[in-house]
Each structure stands twice: as structure tokens, then as C-alpha cells.
Amino acid sequence: MRYTDLSDAECAIAQALGVVGGWWTLLVVRDVAGGVRRFDELQAELGLSRKVLAERLAFLVEQGVLDKRPYRSRPPRYEYHLTTAGQGLVPVLVALQDWGSRFVLGDGSLTATGRPRSMETRRVRRLVGARIPSLMLAASSGKRRDPVAGTGWTIIYCYPGAYAARADYPSGWGEIPGARGCTLESVTYRDRLGDFASRGTRVVGVSTQRPEEQAAFAATERIGFPLLSDQDLQLAAALRLPTFRAAGADRLKRMTLLVRSDREIRGVLFPISDPARSVEDALALVDRELATRSSSSGRAG
């Protein structure tokens, strides 16, 4: 019996479970949000039989969660994209991941960082080699921008939250392990921006704050590089980035990604215990990749 057949027709939870309550449904949505959109790729990722996957995809299209778009006419082939309703499930995915990391895989404590040998840390470090799907995040200017540079390298540092005034911080912020240090981290990047530029590397900061909060902080601290808002959790869901919930909002845990222009992640810093030191560590990531590239070019010559 499907949940939507139950007599509790006025309960939104019961009715929602009729659509997303199946074992594989949210995993399909998870992978589509991460840029895995073609049937064979989804099957390889999930390990489902073709029959079961085809039925699940057809159901989600019927329910308006997925949109089926052709990308080849002969033979006909399709990609699956999240609809507006599907995008509405992204915070559900992030909340489930946060809950699982905290209460199933962790000890239940609230933290803005990770433990070096935790399963969460191992998962994040396996992002090396993954690609960031095409997405646009809101900038403090009000426009939307791609977090990845079209040429060269990009350092994307994710931070829990930075505010223009001390009074703007949520109550109890300083008591959350790993939450403090966002201003120090950002101004250190600001002061070392020339070192990154000399290496052909752009710096981008990402938090889940509203763009106007980021704009106020950038103006106060004279931040001269983009601060982008992942308030819709697009990047968090696409890469399954670690989050925590504080003051009624999902926050990104502190981490740093080194991304190549083809969107491939080439380095990860997580967990980060010293926000200021992490800027030097990010420069070391860039130097390592540049040295590797130079060495490879020398052998090829």
C-alpha cells in the first residue's frame, strides 16, 4: 500500500512519503542533483537493475520531481533533471546527510568541523577527481556566477558564516566547535590574493548566507574577491558537502577545494582546524599541482 492510499489524506508528511518514501527515490534525486543524469550513469552509480531504475525514473517524472530531456535522437536517449519540485527536495537531502553524519555516524555533537579519521572526512577527501557540475550561485552583487573560473585554477573555500558586525552572529555561535574564524580566514585570503593571482588562481568564498549579508561583510572587510551564496544548497547537494544546522539554517562546514578550469577537483582541505593557516595550505595545494603539471610537461617533451 502506498502512503498516498492511506486515510490520513490531510497529513503532508504521509502524502510526501507517497512520492519520495521508496528506498531508492532520494538516492536517485541525490545523484541527479550531483550531475549524474543519464540512465547508464545512474545505473552504474546506484547498482539497480535496469527494470527497477526505469520504473523509478518514470514514476518520478510522472510525479513532477524529474524532467526528462532528450540529448540524442537516434537512438533516442534522455537526461534527467530536477524540476522545481525536485529542487525543493535538496534541503531534505542535506538535512538527512547532516542527521546521518551527526547521529548515525557521529556521536551526536554539533560541530562545524570534522574529525580527521571520520567517515565524513574520508568521503570528503574522495572528492579529488570528481567534477563540479555546471551551476550558478548568487553573488553579493545580485547576479549569479559560476564558482569555477573558465581558465586557470580556482580555490573555493567554504565557510560557516561571516558577518559585518559582531552582533549579527547567531546566539551561541562561538560555542560551536569550528564555527569561529571565518573573518580571519577571509581577510587572510584578501591579504594573500596577489600570491594566488601570480599562480593563475582565482579565490572564491562560499557560504549559505544571504547575498546581502555577504555584501555587508565584504564591504566592511574590503574583500576584493567574489563571495557567493549557496543558500539554495546547490553546491552542497551536488558534492555532498558536509553541513551542520545552526540558528535555523544549514551551514557549510569549513573546507577548501582546488578546482581546475575543466571543473575537476584536484585538492581538498578538510577538516580545517586553523582558518588562517588553511590559506597557506591552499597555496601549497596550488604549488603542488603546478609542479606536477610542469613535471608532466617536461617528461612529455
Query: For the record, what is the CATH homologous superfamily label of the largest domain?
Result: Glutaredoxin
Q: How many E strands?
A: 11
Spatial separation of the terminal alpha carbons: 66 Å
CA-based gyration radius: 21 Å
Given helix and strand content, the structural type is alpha+beta
Strand content: 15-25%
Shape: globular
How are the strands of the biggest sheet laid out side by side?
Answer: 4-3-7-6-5-10-11
Which spans of ≥5 residues are poorly predicted at pLDDT below 50? none
Level-1 CATH class name of the largest domain: Alpha Beta
Helix content: 40-55%
For the biggest sheet, the summary is: 7 strands, mixed
Treating each run of at least 4 consecutive H or I residues as one helix, how many helices?
Answer: 12
- CATH topological fold name of the largest domain: Glutaredoxin
The SSE order reads HHHHEEHHHEEEHHEHEHEEEEH
The tally of structural domains comes to 2
Based on the structure given, which CATH architecture of the largest domain is correct? 3-Layer(aba) Sandwich
Whole-number mean pLDDT: 92
